[in-house]
Specification:
602 residues, seven-stranded mixed beta sheet, 18 strands, alpha+beta, single chain
């Protein structure tokens, strides 16, 4: 028998259906020479400290750092897990070969490898790599099975991640709890990604708290109903502004130049997981975790492709499949109709195999969504994915930008206006710009004034005004902006190409960032105030007592994440990574024990 092992019962069911394994047993399906079984996500985990050494059962400073000579795994204590594992173990020990059908990513590889190790599987193993759960995609993936050895670096990267989290989390949590906790039973949880993320939120909190607004003035004038702003920009002293006002009062405004430029705007990029979470948080206030659950459900219902991805590109081979995908999403027929009967646009901003590693961007599978039962929130997420996919085949939006320069005496003024000439892809979104990432209020961001016709040299009366304003503090993080900050290791970047370059040093993975934010809520280190994320007194106190930059720097943590990606790409040695982590943990323990001056301040 060939044993196939999937990560979830629902996925196993779809695979079994394709393979003809239609006979149900307790814990697996069988038929046509296959036995298809499943895990429930993680069945195994790294052993706990007391599993290595009995003296590590007791929390004490003297036992730190805890560094096992060799890491081991164990079955998670859960009756349902234990029962399912016994089924898997029995099947694997009698199997002639195994097909690893775990989720196609680092975590999925780790989950299944650990189960196979625990079950002491000895037979050859092949890897199934599938990006959607449609019958066609599963059949195609089974025709392209590869030896599991080809994914060894993927497993090593996942294993290093798990060991790194164990080394830092177990040691630093015990260290800081024993050294600084002031309440009985209070555990100060420290994590490799969790703590730098909390540090970003706390830092922003103090930037806002300590912000001192400064007054400034803007000189503007209204000519022919259009507001022109002085090119001087912010005026620091009111006297300077008042003097300028007096100089231009009662004198004609003269148009000195009129410049029109035609421009184009490309469709918004396809979604990776982070950008989908960002948009859903902005548009529907979904948490990152909610969005992940919705898109995971859509994937399991065969409506969208694999969701835990960090690229916004499609590989070139997907292009030939796009007409069929478009025709399959029938509720969008009015939007798709203009694309049919002609060659679809193929943009390098969409199709670029060099920008795709394990998986491509999230797109519809082509399964008609009206034939599948989905919730209202799932429908909202699907709609966003579908419209982005349709939009990339539409023409660019064409617009005209007009810049009018004017002057009163020697003072220069400027007004700009934008006029949409051809909506292009904006039609897919009802004529609005769908990309909201650079604006807290996307509806206002697109409403630029349309200017009347001006002629160079014309002049006439105007109405000058001096408006007092003041500088504003940074905005608190929302889940949307925090996800972006995690993706770029704390650097807030609007430019998409630059953001892509920084992704390699982001903290966490697309699939884990939602869980990190949820953990911060659970530990009561952060709280949500309307849409804003605020640190709690405990979160602030914890970051205040941590002086080791290695524990709270998003940039340094991002460098570790880059090494994990390099391990996956055969560019960095996994043993060196673990040795570096062991040394780092040892140094942190020594530094904190030696420093007797710190204390938690609430």
């Amino acid at each position: 028998m060939i044993v196939c092992i999937a990560e979830k019962p629902s996925v196993a069911k779809e695979i079994a259906k394709v393979l003809g394994a239609n006979t149900s047993h307790d814990g697996y399906m069988e038929g046509n020479g296959y036995q298809v079984t499943w895990t429930f996500g993680h069945l195994c985990c790294l052993k706990e400290p007391q599993d290595y050494c009995d003296q590590w059962r007791r929390w004490s400073i003297g036992s730190l750092p805890m560094i096992p000579p060799r890491f081991g795994i164990k079955l998670i204590e859960n009756q349902g897990y234990e029962k399912q594992f016994k089924t898997i173990e029995r099947l694997m020990q009698a199997a002639e070969s195994i097909i690893n059908c775990g989720d196609a990513g680092q975590e999925g590889e780790l989950i299944q490898r650990w189960v196979m190790q625990k079950a002491k599987a000895k037979c050859p193993v092949q890897r199934l790599w599938v990006s959607s759960l449609t019958e066609e995609a599963i059949r195609e993936a089974f025709s392209q099975l590869k030896p599991q050895d080809e994914y060894q670096s993927l497993y090593e990267a996942g294993l290093c991640r798990a060991i790194g989290d164990w080394l830092l989390g177990m040691n630093a949590t015990r260290l800081y709890t024993l050294r600084f906790s002031q309440a009985k039973g209070q555990i100060l949880s420290i994590g490799r990604v969790q703590t730098p993320t909390l540090a970003m939120i706390v830092k922003r909190h103090f930037e806002i708290k300590d912000f001192k607004p400064e007054k400034y003035w803007i000189l503007s004038t209204i000519y022919r109903g259009v507001t022109f702003n002085s090119t001087k920009g912010k005026i620091k002293k009111v006297e300077e502004g008042q003097k300028a006002m007096e100089e231009i009062k009662g004198k004609d405004f003269t148009v000195t130049s009129v410049e029109q430029k035609a421009g184009t705007e490309a469709p918004p990029r396809l979604f990776d997981l982070t950008s989908l979470q960002v948009e859903c948080n902005k548009k529907y206030s979904f948490s990152a975790d909610d969005t992940l659950k919705h898109i995971q459900s859509l994937y399991e219902k065969k409506l969208t492709t694999y969701p835990r991805v960090d690229t916004t590109y499609l590989s070139d081979d997907i292009y030939a499949k796009c007409p069929a995908i478009l025709q399959g999403i029938r509720p969008y027929a009015p939007l798709i109709q203009p694309l049919m009967g002609k060659k679809l646009k193929k943009s390098k901003k969409v199709f670029d195999s060099s920008k795709v590693t394990d998986h491509h961007a999230i797109i519809p599978t082509g399964t008609d969504p009206s034939t599948v039962s989905i919730t209202l929130d799932e429908k909202r997420v699907y709609d966003m994915v579908a419209r982005r996919f349709i939009a990339v085949f539409y023409p660019d939006c064409k617009f005209s930008t007009t810049t009018v320069m004017g002057a009163v005496e020697k003072l220069e003024f400027k007004a700009t206006g934008k006029q949409i000439l051809d909506e292009g892809w904006r039609l897919v979104f009802g004529g609005k710009s769908e990309s909201t990432e650079n604006s807290e209020n996307s509806e206002n961001s697109d409403k630029e004034q349309v200017l009347p016709a001006f002629e160079q040299g014309e002049h006439g009366p105007h109405e000058p005004t001096l408006t007092e304003k003041q500088t504003t503090p940074p905005k608190p993080y929302t889940e949307a902006t925090l996800l972006r900050a995690m993706e770029t290791a704390g650097k807030m970047v609007d430019n998409e190409e630059l953001r892509d370059a920084l992704k390699a040093n982001g903290i966490g993975r697309p699939s884990t960032r939602a869980a990190i934010i949820e953990t911060l809520y659970k530990r009561q280190y952060i709280q949500k105030v309307r849409k804003s994320l605020e640190p709690t007194p405990t979160g602030i106190a914890l970051i205040g007592v941590i002086q080791e930059e290695l524990l709270k720097s998003a940039e340094l943590t991002g460098q570790w994440e880059k090494k994990l990606r390099d391990i996956e790409a055969h560019k960095y040695d996994s043993h060196q990574f673990i040795d570096e982590l062991k040394q780092m943990v040892t140094e942190i323990v020594q530094q904190v024990i030696a420093d007797g001056t710190r204390r938690m301040v609430y």
